[in-house]
Design a protein that fits this description.
The protein is of the alpha/beta class and 446 residues long. It folds into 3 domains: 1-156, GTP1/OBG domain (Spo0b-associated Gtp-binding Protein, Chain: A); 162-341, Rossmann fold (3-Layer(aba) Sandwich), CATH 3.40.50; 356-444, GMP Synthetase, Chain A, domain 3 (2-Layer Sandwich). 21% of the residues lie in helices and 24% in strands. The chain has 10 helices and 18 strands. The chain has helices spanning 172-179, 234-241, 257-271, 292-303, 320-330, 334-341, 387-392, 398-411, 414-421, 441-444; strands spanning 6-12, 45-50, 64-66, 86-91, 94-98, 104-107, 114-118, 149-156, 162-165, 197-204, 210-219, 246-252, 279-285, 309-311, 356-362, 377-383, 428-431, 434-437. The strands form 4 sheets. A 6-stranded mixed beta sheet has the order 10-11-9-12-13-14, with helices on both faces. It has a 5-stranded mixed beta sheet with strand order 3-1-8-5-6, with no helix packed on it. The longest helix has 15 residues, at 257-271. The termini are far apart.
């Protein structure tokens, strides 16, 4: 299976079911009371992190996910069933971004972790809800709300315990093969590793016998200068580096290890300065190709970076036991690391826009909006405040629900806001596509 670490998908949660407009019917009971049940909620779309999957490739056959709608309410107070949530299984380390806003909406760093990325619509209330002392037989019900829809970009930031950082041909693949049970393809040319390769490293005692401890080691594509700007494999490489608990800078002793370390750290700093705060060490590789004095001299220079330095030879096995043990000793606690390195996620809350009123006069010359006395029509357009969303939920029963909605809008301050703005008796009020005549209760009292 090919490795894939970025995938765009479309998700649409299910709509909420409509509430029922129903009245009880029974033998010998000519006029029963309202008994409409509520609609069920729509199914949400949920990301779920699982282990044993190391690529988003498994999702390639499916780019669109739709949650089932909630069922309609029924008579006899029977509530419609909820739509089942749809789970999308993704690898641990997957981050989800809303394509429109660019915000992080999910960051899954632990096996079993879940996050709703599209919330199902709410079910509407049946007419049994709207009875009152003055409204004993409501002939209206509430409609369900639509489910959330969004385009989502999934990015896999590979979670490995240890990441090997280095330029092409530094010997990372050879080191991975020598330390672990992985079998990467190895050749002597740049960019041999085109996608991350994971290996498992077992801890051993001083006699070489395996202990009951292991870690995952990732050979991540070789970095080049300008990677933080997206050159070469650039951001694909850096995305995975950000999720390893320990970084190993693999440097070729036969080249310019001091200069390469500075360049590597510069690229990491440009992408994310916190990467330089990660627990790190230097593996000075290919020491079998130089004399011992030169290797010691280079090691002394690298120690000036403040990082531990180990001389190793992936080819001949020199220093590998010491490197393996150092990795286990340096490894931070997994749960603590996950808690401190999860990306910040803003609460996915739909904030209601504040109420505003837009006034206009529709002139008689346009031949529209002429009221009975032939004067231009005064129109108040209601924007925000949640009024359009509320009225849409009763669009099928506007005439029957007008009294109820009028009372709701009054309690929520719409009438007083219109009056303060200068609305007059007979003015037109627009809420979405619906138009009403403004009625001033205070002027009509008595």
């Amino acid at each position: 299976m090919a490795f894939r670490d970025v995938l765009n998908i479309e998700v649409a949660a299910g709509n909420g079911g409509d509430g029922s407009m129903s009245f009880h019917r029974a033998k010998y009971m000519e006029k029963g009371g309202p008994d409409g049940g509520h609609g069920g909620k729509g199914g949400s779309i949920v990301l779920r992190a699982i282990e044993g999957v190391e690529s988003l490739e498994r999702l390639l056959g499916r780019r669109k996910f739709k949650g089932p709608n909630g069922a309609y309410g029924e008579g006899r107070l029977r509530q419609g069933s909820d739509g089942e949530d749809i789970y999308i299984d993704v690898p641990v380390g997957t981050t989800a971004f809303d394509e429109e806003s660019g915000k992080v909406i999910a960051d899954l760093v632990r096996v079993g972790q879940t996050k709703v990325i599209a919330r199902g619509g709410l079910g509407g209330r049946g007419n049994s809800t709207f009875t009152s002392s003055t409204r004993q037989a409501p002939r209206f019900a509430e409609l369900g709300t639509p489910g959330q829809k969004r385009r989502v970009r999934l990015e896999l930031r590979l979670i490995a315990d240890v990441g090997l950082v280095g330029y092409p041909n530094a010997g990372k693949s050879s080191l991975l093969a020598a330390l672990s049970r992985a079998n990467p393809a190895i050749a002597d040319y740049p960019f041999t590793t085109l996608s991350p390769i994971l290996g498992v490293v077992d801890r051993v005692d001083t006699h070489g016998s395996p202990l009951d401890e292991r870690l995952t080691l990732a050979d991540i594509p070789g970095i080049i200068e300008g990677a933080s700007e997206g050159k070469g494999l650039g951001l694909e490489f850096l995305r995975h580096i950000s999720r390893t608990r320990v970084l190993v800078y693999v440097l070729d002793v036969t080249r310019d290890p001091v200069g390469e370390l500075a360049q590597l750290q510069s690229e990491l700093r440009s992408y994310d300065p916190t990467l330089l705060e990660q627990v790190s060490l230097i593996a000075l590789n290919k020491v079998e190709l130089v004399d011992e004095d030169l290797a010691v001299m280079v090691e002394d220079e690298l120690i000036g970076s403040g990082l531990p330095v180990l001389q190793v030879s992936a080819k001949e096995g020199q220093g590998l036991n010491e490197l393996r043990e150092s990795l286990f000793q340096l490894l931070p606690d997994r749960e603590l690391w996950a808690q401190t390195h999860a990306l910040d996620i803003e609460p996915d809350v739909i904030r209601e826009a504040p109420l505003s009123l837009e006034f206009r006069i529709d002139p008689a010359a346009q031949g529209v909006g002429i009221i009975s006395d032939g004067q231009p029509e005064r129109v108040w357009k209601v924007v925000g405040g949640g009024f359009e969303e509320r009225i849409v939920r009763f669009s099928r029963y506007l005439e029957e629900a007008s009294e109820y909605l009028g009372n709701v809008f009054k309690r929520q301050g719409l009438y007083s806001a219109l009056k303060r703005a200068g609305a007059r008796e007979g003015d037109t009020v627009e809420i979405g596509p619906h138009r009403f005549e403004y009625f001033d209760e205070d002027e009509n009292k008595g």
